[in-house]
Design goal:
The structure holds three protein chains of three kinds. By secondary structure, chain A is mainly α. Chain A has three helices and no strands. Chain A has one domain. In chain C, helix 11 crosses helix 22 and helix 12 crosses helix 16. Classes of the chains: A mainly alpha, B alpha/beta, C mainly alpha.
Chain lengths: ~60, ~120, ~900
């Protein structure tokens, strides 16, 4: 394998695409305690998680 | 009485060889170098030559080669004497037609017996 | 509420601050301490993505259509996640090809087609102009809100009093700024460091301003976010439907469509391409930007929903949703925060306008105007040597034109669209570049015709499905074609093409335009032939990240077998060429085509020797056999010069190796020579030792064997034995001396002594010998002391040896020897001269060789043969001793007697040496 970094990034991009796309997002689209959908909160959390994963992947000192 | 020609540039060695040959009952002529030796051989027709290799000017090898080329000295017995103990020189001398080869310093008895052997004289 | 003047002063002071920052950035760049050489600055400059549309429009969108605003930022997040793979490739290509804009990039990818570049530039100008107008509108509106609040009359947008419109003046100031920092100089990379610094600063300002409003909303206006949410849940109508996917226009499909649209537009918007690719100074910066920029997006969107909710709760005092960011703090009666928000919005708008205008003006000048001017013969531009002046002038005019057009657009039709609408229409247009751009990066087969067809079709579909209906809805034309289709053709209804209904207009437009665009790009590419230039560029682009890639598939072209042979042979030599390609072509084979396998083999061989890039270009040169353009030639020259440099180094190395080889050979020869000399020396030593030994043994045996010898004779023989024994011991002594000298172990005890006195002593020692040999000895020694530092015993040994030698070689009839001591300045020299035959010039150094005498005699010098023999070690030992005493011993020109003259010289001992030695 030329670069594990590239494979990881491809995997992360696909994961993010899947998480940001309707079929999975519909799972979070249900009313929450405060009266409207919990979707915004889920998206922000997923977003933060994806950024964290990207940062961990890209800033690894041993990455290519 | 057979005559022996002794050729050596070292006077003391020449002296010792002359004495040894006389004592062994030969007539002796001496030469300090190859050129004089050649003249003596032509004049005296010696029966044997004791020939040093390292001589000033013409070397013992040169003289031997010359002797072997001339018909009347072709069969003349020659014993090479040398202070160089190297095998190559011995081989070279024998190849050029020397009858024997003696390394200096030599044993006097051995020398005399080899001369005797060549001159077919029982000791 | 603020007075007009305060707001104006603050706004223009902010712009002035931008000038200062940009000037500082440029200054630092000139000094070589670049500010933009930092991944963080790079990531912040990418945040130019967040325009006034983000700053004001996100809240507006959140208030009306829920979460759809987030898609505009989730898309770029996705794009940045692949940034390390995709953007890095673009950055690398842009650097090697010196790309200046996205139009340049696409044009370069497709064989440097100027037509394609023009097309892209035209589309970009048409598509982005509304976007620039949008920024101006945001400035006008926000200024109006700030100064007129709470009177929220819609701002007056008409051309009649443009000098009262602040947006006009902002546009003017920006034009000056952009001309100053965007067109100061033309460097090959088209980088603008000062501008990037200012943009990064603006990104910080807008983020700070927006978060400030968010914090105010969540923690000041409402005690906590939870309170805000529960109030919103309780008070706002139909809240349970809010922020779900259903609220998104087009539902889940619309969500996905907009996500893809944003991801594509993020890369293809001219300003994004500018900051992402053109302004990138180091591709490693992407590493951090790929997560830092999404984090920036997350932060700037964190408070959008709370602000939207608070705005909705605050109605009607908060006015239009697009202005909530501003009206919320205004409604709360704050003074400073609205100003900060205004500045934030201003920074968002100006940063976008600056970068976009630079990108567009570059495209307009490089892709549109210059090619046309160069074709216009009457200007004789092609004869002009310096076009940079022209280029800068055109670019400056373009900047002003773009901003004025933007302003006109804003003034004339700006009212018709809400902020978000204009933005997405531009996005959809920019996205049309994506197929040609992205597919071109990975599919070598994508051709210029395909790209052009795709672009034209895509942009036509875009115009029909988005732009024209948009104009119509603005009241500029009849709208019945939207409802019933043009001329009653239902299937051409712009929002329901071919009867595809129920989709949101953007997904609908994206779907059809992309279908047409991609379909034609792929279809036409598959059925059209690429020019050679296109093939070259396609190969360079698609393989930008993998220089070692296997390239066998590309060589489908026609190459003569002979030329291929000649090429490979030129670089690899005959033997290697035959190994690679088989026997050289002969006869009619010469003109036959090389097989793909041969081409692949040739390339592999060349790659091994010259590197893949060069090999590819070289093979190209025979496969294509046609003239390449300037850039390709330059890149060939580049790699060739690298190769030449490499070859030169190789040559140096091999020269060095050859030199080392010669040296080694020399050393080996010397060693052999030394070995030979050692053998010779040993043979000579053995010969020399054997000679006296022979006499001793012979006489000893004679004495032993003959008892009846005369006493005198016995005595004579004994004397000989004794003398030869002495000779033997002397010889052994000398050999040991020689060995000591050569190994450096000869120990001398130097002390101050009188050379004259030593001379006298030596003469005394040899007097008897000379008398025996009847040699006349003349001595010239001074009466004054001649102080030298020497070992007296050894020095005397040398003198005696010289005298002894001289006596041996003097004329045999009237032998004469002269010993002379002279002073020359600070040296004393002792000469020993004889009247013998002398020494030939050529022999003068040889006499100092060990056992020289023997060879000498063997060479047949009759005279020498008569002489008493030495060992042949006397002179070498003498020289060794004198050298070790710091003097010299050599054969000099005879001065008096005309024979051999040996002379030694020693330095005079200094006065203070007396004390040292005493």
């Amino acid at each position: 394998m030329k670069a594990p970094l590239q494979s990881r990034l491809v995997a992360l991009s696909l994961l993010a695409l899947a998480l940001f796309s309707p079929p999975l997002l519909l799972l979070f689209d249900r009313p929450a305690a405060w009266g409207f959908s919990s979707l915004p909160v889920s998206i922000y959390l997923i977003w933060a998680l994806v950024i964290l994963l990207a940062a961990l992947t890209l800033e690894r000192p041993d990455a290519d | 009485m057979p005559e022996v020609l002794v050729v050596d540039d070292e006077p003391n060695i020449l002296l010792s060889l002359e004495f040894l040959m006389q004592q062994a009952g030969y007539k002796v002529v001496t030469a300090p170098d190859a050129e004089q030796a050649a003249v003596l051989i032509a004049g005296h027709c010696p029966d044997l030559v004791l020939l040093d290799i390292s001589l000033p000017g013409m070397s013992g090898f040169d003289l031997l080669e010359q002797l072997r080329q001339q018909p009347d000295t072709q069969k003349l017995p020659v014993i090479m004497l040398t202070a160089h103990g190297r095998e190559v020189e011995k081989e070279k001398g024998l190849a050029l037609g020397a009858n024997d080869y003696i390394t200096k310093p030599f044993s006097t008895r051995d020398l005399v017996s080899r001369v005797d052997a060549l001159l077919n004289t029982p000791t | 509420m603020q007075t007009n003047w305060v707001v104006l002063i603050i706004a223009f002071s902010y712009l002035a601050l931008l000038f200062v920052i940009a000037a500082w950035g440029d200054r630092r760049a000139e000094q070589g301490r670049s500010l933009v050489n930092s991944p963080t600055i790079y990531a912040l400059s990418i945040a130019v993505y967040c325009t006034a549309w983000t700053f004001y429009g996100s809240v507006g969108r959140a208030a009306t259509t829920g979460l759809s605003f987030l898609l505009i930022y989730l898309g770029p997040t996705l794009a940045m996640l692949c940034g390390w793979l995709v953007l890095r490739k673009m950055v690398r290509i842009a650097r090697s090809q010196r790309i200046t804009s996205i139009a340049d990039f696409i044009s370069a990818r497709y064989g440097k087609s100027s037509g394609l570049g023009m097309l892209v530039a035209l589309i970009a100008v048409v598509a982005i102009m509304p976007y620039i107008a949008l920024q101006l509108k945001a400035i006008t509106v926000s200024y109006g809100v700030l100064t007129e609040y709470p009177n929220l009359s819609p701002p007056d947008l008409s051309l009649s009093d443009f000098w009262n419109d602040k947006a006009f003046w902002v546009a003017l100031v920006l034009a000056v700024f952009i001309i100053l920092f965007g067109t100061r100089h033309l460097d090959a990379s088209e980088r603008h460091e000062g501008m990037v610094t200012a943009i990064a600063f603006e990104s910080l300002v807008k983020l700070f301003a927006f978060i400030a409003v968010g914090v105010f909303t969540c923690f000041v206006l409402y005690p906590s976010p939870a309170t805000l949410l529960s109030q919103a849940g309780a008070l706002l109508p139909e809240m349970e439907r809010h922020f779900g996917l259903d609220q998104i226009p087009g539902g889940p499909l619309g969500w996905f469509g907009t996500l893809v649209l944003a991801a594509l537009a993020f890369i293809t918007l001219p300003r994004q391409f500018q900051v992402l690719v053109v302004e990138n100074v180091n591709e490693q910066h992407l590493r951090r930007a790929c997560w830092l920029f999404p984090l920036y997006l997350l932060l700037i969107n964190l408070f959008v929903i709370p602000i939207a909710l608070a705005g909705l709760l605050g109605l009607p005092g908060t006015g239009e949703p697009d202005s909530f960011v501003l009206t919320l703090p205004l409604a709360a009666g704050l003074e400073a925060l609205p100003l900060l928000v205004f500045i934030g919005g201003l920074s968002a708008a100006t940063s976008m306008m600056i970068v976009e205008t630079i990108a567009l003006s570059t495209m307009v000048s490089n892709q549109l105007v210059m090619p046309l001017l160069l074709r216009w013969r009457r200007l004789h531009l092609e004869e002009s040597h310096d076009l940079s002046g022209w280029l800068l002038g055109i670019r400056r005019i373009a900047i002003i034109a773009i901003l004025i057009l933007g302003y006109l657009y804003h003034a004339l039709i700006g009212e018709a669209y809400s902020l978000v609408t204009i933005g997405l229409v531009s996005f959809a247009a920019a996205a049309q570049f994506a197929p040609a751009l992205l597919l071109g990066l990975y599919w070598r087969g994508a051709s210029r015709n395909g790209a052009a067809a795709g672009l034209v079709a895509g942009i036509l579909v875009w115009a029909w499905t988005l732009l024209i209906p948009g104009f119509a809805l603005s009241g500029w034309m009849q709208t019945d074609f939207i409802e019933r289709g043009p001329m009653g053709l239902e299937w051409l209804k712009p929002y329901a093409l071919f009867g595809l209904e129920g989709w949101d207009i953007y997904t609908h437009a994206l779907f059809w335009s992309m279908l047409a665009n991609l379909g034609l790009l792929i279809g036409v590419s598959l059925f059209s032939r690429q020019s050679h230039m296109e093939q070259t560029q396609a190969a360079l682009f698609t393989n930008a990240l993998k220089p070692e890639a296997e390239m066998a598939a590309i060589w489908q072209g026609h190459a003569s077998r002979y030329e291929l042979f000649r090429l490979v042979q030129r670089y690899l030599g005959k033997a290697a060429t035959q190994r690679l390609l088989g026997p050289a072509p002969t006869g009619d084979q010469i003109d036959s085509a090389a097989t793909p396998a041969m081409l692949a083999a040739a390339e592999q061989g060349l790659t091994g020797a010259l590197g893949s890039a060069t090999a590819r270009i070289l093979i190209n040169s025979v496969v294509r056999g046609e003239a390449l353009d300037m850039a390709s030639i330059l890149s060939i020259l580049d790699t060739t010069s690298q190769t030449l440099e490499y070859n030169r180094r190789l040559e140096q190395k091999s020269d060095e190796l050859a030199r080392i080889g010669t040296e080694l050979k020399g050393a080996n020869d010397r060693l052999r020579e030394l070995d030979r000399l050692k053998d010779e020396f040993l043979a000579m030593v053995s010969h020399e030792l054997r000679t006296p030994l022979t006499s001793i043994r012979a006489f000893a045996e004679i004495l032993n064997d003959s008892e009846d010898m005369a006493p005198e004779q016995r005595q004579h023989f004994l004397t000989i034995i004794v003398r030869e024994s002495e000779r033997l011991s002397r010889l052994i002594e000398e050999i040991l001396d020689m060995a000591r000298l050569e190994s450096g172990r000869m120990t001398l005890s130097p002390q101050r002594c009188d050379l004259s006195q030593l001379g006298h002593q030596a003469v005394e020692a040899v007097t008897q010998l000379f008398e025996q040999r009847q040699v006349q000895l003349d001595v010239e020694l001074p009466d004054t002391p001649c102080p030298v530092i020497a070992d007296p015993d050894r020095l005397q040994q040398v003198l005696i040896n010289l005298l002894d030698n001289a006596s041996k070689f003097a004329d045999p009839e009237t032998p004469q020897v002269l010993l002379r001591l002279q002073q020359h300045k600070h040296k004393f020299s002792v000469s020993v001269e004889d009247n013998g035959p002398g020494i030939d010039e050529a022999e003068r150094e040889k006499v100092f060789e060990k056992f020289h005498q023997i060879e000498h005699q063997q060479q047949g010098q009759q005279v020498a043969a008569q002489r008493p023999k030495g060992t042949g070690l006397g002179l070498p030992i003498s020289r060794g001793i004198i050298n070790q005493l710091g003097g010299r011993l050599w054969v000099a020109e005879p001065e008096v007697l005309g024979g051999a003259c040996l002379r030694l010289s020693l330095p005079q001992a200094l006065e203070e040496d007396q004390e040292v030695s005493s």
